[in-house]
Design a protein that fits this description.
It is built from 17 helices and 15 strands. The protein is α/β, with parallel strands linked by helices. The protein folds into two domains: 171 residues, Cobalamin-binding domain (Rossmann fold), CATH 3.40.50.280; 245 residues, Aldolase class I (TIM Barrel). Strand 14, helix 13 and strand 15 form a beta-alpha-beta unit. The longest helix has 20 residues. The N and C termini lie far apart (48 Å). The mean pLDDT is 94.
Length: 481
C-alpha cells in the first residue's frame, strides 16, 4: 500500500492541531504545546484503510528541514499531509516547495482552518501550484477517504466534503456545510506513532494527552472560528467513549495528565457530571489530573466541585474583556459580572484559573482597554494570556475590520502577537501593543503574585523550577517583542 507521511513541519511552535486558535506557543506567556491529535487521528483513519503511515512533529522536537529530508529519503512517501496555520502558511508553503524539489512525484495535502470554504481572494494570495489537495473540514473524517480516492478512484473526490481539489487546473470545492454527527465513530488518535514525551503539563513537565471531548459551539462570538469551521451545533462524544480513551492513555502509554479540548466543557451539566462520575467510580479515581476550557455561563458551583473531585486542577475561561460594551458588541453572551462570578466559583471549588483576554477590537478606545486591565487584576487568575484580537477569515470580526479599513494588507501570516490590523478606529497598533506589554509585566511582577506562586511551589521542586523557566520566558517575550 502507499505510504502517507503526516507532519508538523520545522519552525516556530504553533498549536497546529487546534484549528480554532492556532496559538503562537513560542511567543505566549503561559501556554504549552499540546499533542498533535490531528495527525494521530489521521494516522488511525489511514491505517484502517490499509495505508502505511509515517508521523512526526518536527517543530516540537526542534528538528530542521534537513532532518525532515533525511527521514523522507529513508522512507519516501507517496502522499504527505502537513498541518498549517494562518500564521505559518507562507513558511509552510516554502517547505512544500523544497520538498517537491526533492520528491517531485509526492502528492501534497495541506490541512488547516485557513482552507475552510476559503474565498477566492485568500487563495489568490498563496502560491498553491505545488499543492494537490486542501483540507478545510474535519481532517480526521476526511483523510482516509481522500487518500483512498486519490490512489484508487479520483471520480470519488467530489463526494468528500470539506476539501478543495484540482480539476483541469482549477480548484474545485466540495460541500462545507455539513459535519459528522457521530464522534464516537472515530478511532482514537494513534499515540503509538506520536512522541508523547513532547507534550507536557507546563507546571510538572509530566506527559499530558489532549482529549477532544466535543466539537461545534452554539455561541455567536464574532472573533471565534469554531462556529464557522465546526458548526453551531454542539456535538458531544459520549462520556463512555471519552473515558475509554483516557483509560487507554493511562494503561498503554503511562499518561496521567490530560487537557480536555472543548470550548464548552460545562455547557451540558448532565454530560459533564456523567464523565466526572465515570472517573470517580473507576480505578482511575485519584490517579489522573486534567484541565478543561469553559464558558463563564452556564456554570455552577456544584459542577465545578464535581470536576475538582474527578481530578480537574485548572479551568480556563475566555473572559475576553472587562468592558460591557465590548462583550456586547463581540456577542460574547456573557457579562462582566458573570466573568467575576465564574472565577470566584472556580476558586471556591479549589481550582486554579486560567484567564484569556482580548484587546484591539475595531471600536475600542483607551477606556475599553482600561476596563479590561481592571478586570484582569480584579479576577487575579493564576495564569493569563492577553491577546490582540485577530480577524481570522470566516469570522464576523474579519468582515468588521475589513469594512473599517483596519486590515494591514492581509491577515495571512499573522497571529495574536503579530497583529494583522493597523489598530482600532481610535488606537494605533503601537498603543495596543504598549498597553499589552505594560499590563503583562505589571501583572506578573506584583509581589503578591510572585509570593502566591512561591507559596504553592515551595514544596514542589519541579513546579518551582518550571515556574522560574516560564517567568524568564514571559519577561523575555514581553520585553523584546
Amino acid at each position: 500500500m502507499p505510504v502517507v507521511a503526516l507532519i508538523y513541519p520545522p519552525g516556530l511552535l504553533f498549536q497546529r492541531g487546534e484549528d480554532r486558535c492556532q496559538s503562537n506557543i513560542a511567543s505566549s506567556t503561559a501556554t504549552s504545546m499540546r499533542a498533535c491529535n490531528d495527525l494521530g487521528y489521521a494516522a488511525a483513519a489511514l491505517k484502517q484503510k490499509g495505508f502505511d503511515v509515517f508521523l512526526k512533529d518536527y517543530q516540537t522536537e526542534g528538528l530542521t528541514f534537513d532532518d525532515l529530508l533525511s527521514d523522507l529519503e529513508q522512507n519516501p512517501p507517496d502522499m504527505l499531509m502537513m498541518s498549517t496555520t494562518n500564521a505559518t502558511i507562507f513558511t509552510d508553503l516554502e517547505i512544500v516547495k523544497r520538498l517537491k524539489a526533492a520528491f517531485d512525484k509526492i502528492c501534497v495535502v495541506l490541512k488547516g482552518a485557513v482552507f475552510f470554504d476559503p474565498e477566492d481572494g485568500l487563495l489568490n494570495q498563496l502560491d498553491l501550484s505545488l499543492t494537490d489537495y486542501l483540507i478545510g473540514g474535519e481532517s480526521d473524517f476526511i483523510i482516509g477517504d481522500l487518500a483512498w480516492a486519490h490512489f484508487n478512484d479520483q471520480s470519488k473526490l467530489s463526494a468528500i466534503g470539506g476539501i478543495l481539489y484540482r480539476e483541469n487546473g482549477q480548484w474545485k470545492r466540495t460541500d462545507f456545510a455539513h459535519w459528522h454527527e457521530d464522534l464516537d465513530a472515530l478511532p482514537f488518535p494513534d499515540r503509538s506513532l506520536m512522541n508523547n514525551a513532547l507534550y507536557l503539563r507546563p507546571d510538572t513537565q509530566e506527559k499530558q494527552a489532549t482529549i477532544a471531548t466535543s466539537r461545534g459551539c452554539p455561541s455567536n462570538c464574532i472573533f471565534c472560528l469554531t462556529p464557522h469551521i465546526s458548526g453551531k451545533r454542539l456535538r458531544l462524544r459520549s462520556p463512555e467513549n471519552i473515558f475509554a480513551e483516557i483509560t487507554e492513555c493511562y494503561e498503554k502509554f503511562g499518561i496521567r495528565n490530560f487537557f480536555f479540548k472543548s470550548d464548552t466543557f460545562t455547557i451540558n451539566k448532565a454530560w459533564t457530571v456523567a464523565l466526572c462520575d465515570l472517573i470517580l467510580s473507576s480505578p482511575l479515581k485519584g490517579k489522573i489530573e486534567w484541565v478543561a476550557n469553559s464558558r463563564v455561563n452556564p456554570i455552577d458551583q456544584e459542577t465545578l466541585v464535581k470536576m475538582k473531585q474527578a481530578g480537574c486542577w485548572l479551568v480556563a475561561f475566555g473572559f475576553e474583556s472587562g468592558s460591557s460594551d465590548t462583550l456586547e458588541k463581540a456577542r460574547k453572551g456573557a457579562t462582566v459580572e458573570q466573568n467575576k462570578a465564574a472565577a470566584e466559583m472556580a476558586k471556591k471549588a479549589g481550582l486554579m484559573v486560567y484567564g484569556f483576554y482580548l484587546i484591539g477590537f475595531p471600536w475600542e478606545t483607551q477606556e475599553h482597554l482600561e476596563a479590561t486591565r481592571k478586570l484582569i487584576f480584579d479576577i487575579d487568575a493564576d495564569f493569563i494570556e492577553l491577546h490582540i484580537a485577530t480577524p481570522f477569515y470566516g469570522t464576523g470580526l474579519y468582515e468588521m475590520a475589513k469594512e473599517a479599513g483596519l486590515i494591514d494588507e492581509s491577515v495571512l501570516g499573522k497571529d495574536y502577537f503579530n497583529a494583522p490590523t493597523i489598530g482600532t478606529k481610535y488606537l494605533s497598533i503601537g498603543e495596543i501593543e504598549a498597553f499589552r506589554k505594560k499590563t503583562i509585566l505589571k501583572y506578573h511582577l506584583r509581589p503578591s503574585y510572585i509570593l502566591r506562586k512561591l507559596k504553592y511551589a515551595v514544596f514542589r521542586p519541579k513546579v518551582l523550577k518550571n515556574y522560574f523557566v516560564f517567568g524568564l520566558k514571559l519577561i523575555k517575550n514581553t520585553i523584546t517583542r
